[in-house]
Model the fold of this input.
Amino acid sequence: MTRQIETHHYVTRLNQDFLQCAVYDFDDSHDRLINVEYIVSDKIFELLFPDEQKLWHSHAYEIKASIWVNPQIPEMIGQPELQNLAKNYGTSTCGLMVWEVICAEHGIDATRRYQGDNELQLKTRQIRVLRPDFPMG
Done:
């Protein structure tokens, strides 16, 4: 992955097969709502029409590659939920222009490479070692 920014997902589980996430760009008083993501189970995803499925993305890669981390939850406790989320699919309401602005603010340069020293970004390589058995999707 050549582009990566830190985002904060505040997740509400509406039922076993459906979650809703408010996505913010920071975790402080300057944060902005930048996206709303809807997450469905693989069971619901399989019921969607093929054209609709194209608008959804698997969370398997995000979790296996340690792009999705839960910094306040010990890995051992969070593993079961992450394994479940790896089988789910998400769709977003954010447009490309918004992401371009956010990337610039978070140290993603014109070549789409991270040019910063954010601890969470740099820690993802270490976390990947802890998730060798997660499916990649």
In short: Residues 75-85 form the longest helix (11 residues). The chain is about 30% helix and 20% strand. Strands lie at 8-15, 18-24, 33-40, 57-58, 89-92. The two ends are 15 Å apart (CA to CA).
